[in-house]
Design a protein that fits this description.
By secondary structure, this protein is an alpha+beta fold. It is about 35% helix and about 25% strand. It folds into five domains: about 1-70; about 80-105 and about 330-410, conserved putative lor/sdh protein from methanococcus maripaludis s2 fold; about 125-240, RNA polymerase II/Efflux pump adaptor protein, barrel-sandwich hybrid domain (OB fold (Dihydrolipoamide Acetyltransferase, E2P), Beta Barrel), CATH 2.40.50; about 250-315, Elongation Factor Tu (Ef-tu), domain 3; about 435-590, Up-down Bundle (Four Helix Bundle (Hemerythrin (Met), subunit A)). The chain has helices spanning about 1-40, 85-90, 155-170, 175-190, 195-205, 390-400, 415-430, 445-465, 470-485, 495-515, 520-540, 555-560, and strands at about 45, 70, 80-85, 95-100, 100-105, 105-115, 125, 130-135, 145, 150-155, 210-215, 220-225, 230, 235-240, 245-255, 265-270, 280-285, 295-305, 315-320, 330-335, 340, 345-350, 355-370, 370-375, 385-390, 545-550, 560-565, 585-590. Mean pLDDT is about 80; it is low at about 410-435.
Length: about 600
């Protein structure tokens, strides 16, 4: 029995020893396999240009620096996902919200529009006979006229002859009444009054200069003739508008048309008097859709006896709309979460509730209701999306070569010449204002030199506000002068030197083009590029001053544009005096 027990013990020890050996071998193989997989999946990036991702070590195709191993913290993420550091999240104040439902039964729809003249009350003062204007009593456009007011005196040869005919016909009044009446009626057709005709008959004197009286009451909107001009019968002399009533024209998007009907109440506010609301009714909805803007015109008539509304004013309209008794539920998201590319609407989804992992999603939005959008496609209830710091998250996606607002497909991993050319093209398309920026330590001397460039930029911005293209050129030249005075020797490391060299090139390019242009529209186009590059430089290096980065979504043909300001108050340089207050503060650079 003892012998069997010993055999069993030896057998058990053998099994145990074999299991230990087998386990070690398996572990070593697993570790080896993991190491091989990590080595195969290892990506290489550039410290200066983290958007560069290559499968093999080598040189950066942009700056030529040696590539370094990319961090492995992002391993295991999906192809379009990317991760931000906690530091970046805090610096950019990135905030998220969970998508929820809201009732769409009773809502407010906001519309943007402009004040225009009431075409039904417009008139054109014409001449009813040919002649030469001896005196024009209207001196300027904007002058008010009353019906019956003397507008001009005209010398007319044919009217002179007709008056002589009348004097002759008066003596034949009893014998040839038909002739007399015909001559008298001809003068009436030329808009001579009975009083004027009777005076000619009584005095038997011909008027050389015949007066023209206003046939309408209103404001002169356009002078079509000048004193001394020869005019023809039926020729327009003045355009007269009656501004006692005006039209408010609004653009209604294609997917909003069903929410409006004639007779609906609409509340209107102006930018000049935002504390006063004017209530009126929808008077007309254009039956034809504008194929270019995909909108229809909605019109409301406003009483303007106090002359509060001026043609050309921007106004906002709010319409309460009821979509049936059934309270349909729709997804709603804050307007700040949506990025627009012109063709697409995108948001950034936080895919992991416990980690800062994000992914871009394209969505289809419906109506804007207050500060929220209805979501028709692309999101589901409970999704978590970025609502603050959205542009910063988009910049991080661009830098990591992921799908982004500007890069629909993401950046492919490439090597060699293909990688160099493809990445350079991608970088060219990127807007400097969209790059994720972290402050770089530089000397105060460098910051002070950069501040001189910024101070001159502010004066240039003010010139655009004032529509002064000549002053813009002068200040653009001075921006270039201060730019050349910046001492790059003050930058002590390769990273800051390479970054400044790149930004300086973009600032110089935009400013040079701007200084060589005399057209204010072309100057504003280059100002957008200058603002983008200078904004990046200030965010990276600082100028020891609080700066407001402001944004107008309507600038650059509704593509949107940024600019920098020392004041929080928005004064828009992209439209001059036409639309000074359009825009908002997007970021404060401390």
């Amino acid at each position: 029995m003892k012998k069997y027990i010993i055999y069993i013990g030896i057998l058990a020890v053998g099994f145990l020893f074999g299991w230990v050996l087998s386990g070690n071998t398996t572990n070593e193989e697993t570790v080896h396999n993991h190491a091989e997989m990590a080595e195969e999946n290892q990506m290489w990036t550039c410290a200066m240009h983290p958007q560069i991702m290559q499968a093999e070590p080598g040189d950066c195709p942009i700056c030529g620096m040696d590539l370094i191993p990319a961090e492995t913290s992002a391993m295991g993420l999906a192809a379009d996902q990317f991760k931000l550091t906690e530091n970046a999240m805090a610096l950019a104040n990135i905030q998220t919200v969970v998508v929820g439902e809201g009732a769409s039964g009773i809502t407010e729809v906001k519309l943007s529009g402009t004040i225009v003249e009431n075409e039904e009350a417009n008139a054109v003062q014409v001449s009813y006979f040919s002649g030469r204007i001896e005196k024009l009593n209207i001196n300027f456009t904007g002058e008010k006229v009353q019906k019956g007011q003397l507008l001009a005196t005209v010398y007319s040869p044919e009217l002179y002859a007709a008056q002589q005919e009348l004097i002759t016909a008066v003596s034949l009044k009893e014998t040839q009444p038909a002739l007399y009446n015909a001559v008298r009626n001809k003068l009436k057709l030329w808009k001579l009054s009975d009083t004027q005709i009777n005076q000619i008959e009584r005095t038997k004197q011909v008027q050389e200069n015949v007066p023209i009286y206003a046939t309408f009451t209103g404001t002169v909107s356009e002078k079509l003739v000048a004193q001394g001009d020869y005019i023809k019968q039926g020729q327009a002399l003045l355009k007269i508008v009656n501004l006692n009533t005006v039209w408010a024209n609004f653009d209604v998007f294609e997917n909003q048309i069903d929410f409006f009907k004639k007779g609906q109440e609409i509340s209107i506010t102006t930018h000049s008097n935002q504390n006063t609301t004017f209530k009126t009714k929808v008077d007309f909805i254009d039956p034809v859709l504008n194929a270019n803007t995909r909108t229809v015109k909605l019109r409301a008539v406003l009483n303007n006896t106090d002359q509060v509304f001026k043609p050309g004013m921007f106004v906002e309209g709010v319409v309460k709309r009821t979509q049936g008794s059934a309270m349909k539920k729709v997804l709603k998201i804050p307007a700040s979460a949506v990025l627009w590319t012109g063709e697409r609407s995108v948001v950034y989804l936080k895919t992991n509730p416990d980690q800062p992992v994000f992914e871009m999603h394209e969505i289809v939005v419906g109506n804007q209701i207050g500060n929220e959008y209805e979501v028709l496609e692309g999101l589901t209830l409970g999704d978590e999306i970025v609502t603050n710091g959205t542009y910063t998250v988009d910049a991080a996606a661009q830098l990591q070569g992921k799908k982004s607002m500007m890069n629909k497909a993401g950046v492919k991993t490439m090597t060699g010449h293909e990688g160099h050319m493809g990445m350079m093209d991608t970088m060219t398309d990127m807007d400097n204002s969209a790059i994720l920026k972290e402050r770089i330590e530089v000397s105060k001397a460098f910051q002070n030199q950069l501040k001189k460039v910024f101070d001159r930029y502010i004066l240039l911005k003010d010139d655009l506000v004032n529509d002064d293209s000549e002053a813009v050129i002068r200040n653009a030249i001075l921006v270039l002068a201060y730019l050349t005075e910046i001492d790059m020797k003050l930058l002590k490391d390769n990273k800051s030197l390479a970054l400044w060299t790149s930004l300086e090139k973009e600032i110089k390019k935009a400013t040079t083009t701007l200084s060589n242009s005399t057209d204010i529209a072309a100057q504003r186009s280059q100002f957008k590029l200058l603002s983008s590059s200078l904004s990046s430089a200030i965010e990276y290096f600082g100028v020891n001053e609080k700066i407001y980065q402001q944004y107008c979504p309507m600038a650059d043909n509704n593509n949107g544009a940024y600019w920098l300001s020392k004041d929080e108050k928005v004064i828009n340089p992209y439209y001059g005096q036409a639309m000074l207050t359009c825009g908002e503060v997007k970021q404060i650079i401390e």
